[in-house]
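We now fix the convention by which a protein and its fold are recorded. The integers have meaning only within a learned vocabulary of local backbone shapes. A record is reproduced here so that you can trace the correspondence yourselves:
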Amino acid sequence: MREKNDLNLAVLIDADNIPYSNIKEMLDEIAKLGVPTIKRIYGDWTKPTVSGWKKSLLEHAITPIQQYSYTVGKNATDSAMIIDAMDILHSQKVDGFCLVSSDSDFTRLATRLRESGKIVIGIGEKKTPKPFIVACDKFIYIEIISRKKGNKPSTSAKAVPSQVDEVDPIDSKFIQLIISSVEDIADDDGWAFLAEVGSLIIKKKPDFDPRNYGFPKLTPLIKSLKKYFTVDERDSGKRHIKHIYIRTKK
């Protein structure tokens, strides 16, 4: 996926399907990927179930969009959010969208936005259905970005999986995903630039994030897999910056 810090992003939040307690962490995560030039949140603000959002909206300059529930049992937020997204798309004011929801009803919207050449970042809970996840360029789990302060994993290359949160297992299927990605872009000597490997993995698996496996970055995750990969740190010509290359062990 193309990631630039100067990307203009439209952040659209489904208040009915996202907890308000982690809004700051979500916005901090979005700031790593681009500039949230549009921030809107959709819900029926007459309902007590979304009242917890109101303080956060003022603190983070998020524009609330009122959407009444005309029919009991139906989520009217979906249609309002979709209509707004298409209006923003045709205005050509943004480079991409961040859809914050755990609802699979936004799968077609994500697909349509990508068809129009826009980057789509999804943020939702781990219960989010797979179709919505794979429809995005990148999907980030709220459980990963909502770690309490003081419980953040170490940034050391010797970092070990965090015991704070439940992490995904590093199984044979995941190992094979990394191996195939390395082989897809490796040079004649079998070496692949780790940053390119990470980008390719995200294209194959949009919800890939080293933090899902308990590591803060991709490099310490790879270094923990010494049985499968050889790591080579090369000078970049810039102080304190190394280029990391890896290749599979035969």
In short: The CA atoms of residues 10 and 97 lie 5 Å apart. Residues 148-164 have pLDDT under 50 and may be disordered. The two ends are 29 Å apart (CA to CA).
